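Margin note: ligand = guanosine-5'-monophosphate.
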Amino acid sequence: MIVLSAPSGAGKTTIFRAILEKDPQISYSVSETTRPCRNGEVNGKDYFFVTPEHFQHHIETGYFAEWAIVHHHYYGTPRQYIQQQLDQGFDVLLDIDVQGARQIRQVYPEGVFIFIVPPSIQVLEERLRARKTDTEAAIRHRIEMATEELSHIDDYQYLVINDQLPQAIAETHAIIQAERCRRTRSLFSIQDLLPVS
Ligand code: 5GP
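Resulting structure:
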């Protein structure tokens, strides 16, 4: 289980898309949200866009591995999909906020938790404006939220500073690759190395 969190505007989406493209062993978990679909987003690929009633029903039926309210909208990770993918041997990548990451850690303590940060709050603000997807009020809210989210940094094992995008992509992927090689995760047995007697 790979959990990526970041204040919005830190470049997380660009980073995980690049990693998904080059690493077929990683499966992306598409979240459900009550947030309206943005220009260019595709239902079922970026998110499953649902009504608040639909989301509420899923909360009540235990459909989510975690869910949270972020920027006034509901977001949740479907439980069944991630477990199926893990069972099939895929690494599952979740793009979720700090509240969701905390819930996932309870269920998957062996997960890899990576926090991506911009080099400064000023750069974050510039990136949010450049996206042209949010109103001024939404941008102000996201910057306030970013400051709050940064206070959860200690919950994560890894920190990637997205100053230069190619380097941030390489570092994030290197973390994932190194975690796969952990002796305690490996299916490899030392017996396979010993001569047959
Ligand atoms: P956005 O609306 O900009 O795509 O995402 C806003 C925030 O919601 C991001 O921090 C993103 O990581 C988070 N988010 C997206 N999907 C989920 C989810 O399923 N659960 C939780 N807890 N957060 C999510």
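The pocket of guanosine-5'-monophosphate is lined by residues 8, 31, 35, 66, 68, 70-71, 75-77, 95-97, 99-100 (CB under 6 Å).
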